[in-house]
Amino acid sequence: QVQLVESGGGLVQAGGSLRLSCAASGSIFSMGWYRQAPGKQRELVARITGGSNTRYADSVKGRFTISRDNAKNMVYLQMNSLKSEDTAVYYCTATWGLGLPNYWGQGTQVTVSS
């Protein structure tokens, strides 16, 4: 069992930046971020493997950057040029392979005001 604890959400104006952090209780192959906006399905935002291969949703490419510190079992999401449509609850995830996440954090709210 891997536990995930997110931090760094909050309220920011459009065009601003936020950095999300997630601490995992153990080492795991792939970590990432999903988000869910009101009335919408949960969607993948970004994912990074232990070898630092990354994948991004088209909607965040060029604005968001995912990174990880394997020694600390941490994953980060740097979010720049935020838009109102980025408003959502962001969930840290961890996966043993490349499929759907095996573990989820409790979520952190990101609100972008226009």
Descriptive overview:
- By secondary structure, the protein is mostly beta strands.
- Helices cover 0% and strands 53% of the residues.
- The protein contains no helices and 11 strands.
- The strands form 2 sheets. Strands 2, 4, 5, 6, 9, 10 and 11 form a 7-stranded mixed β-sheet that branches. The chain has a 4-stranded antiparallel β-sheet with strand order 1-3-8-7, with no helix packed on it.
- It is globular, with a radius of gyration of 13 Å.
- The termini are far apart.
Distance from N terminus to C terminus (CA atoms, Å) equals: 39 Å
Q: What string, H for helix and E for strand, traces the elements in order? A: EEEEEEEEEEE
Assign the structural class, choosing from mainly alpha, mainly beta, alpha/beta, alpha+beta, or little secondary structure. Answer: mainly beta
Helix content: under 10%
- Beta-strand level of the residues, as a percent range? over 45%
Shape: globular
Low-pLDDT runs of 5+ residues are none
Number of strands: 11
Number of helices: 0
Computed Rg = 13 Å
Mean pLDDT: 95
Largest sheet: 7 strands, mixed
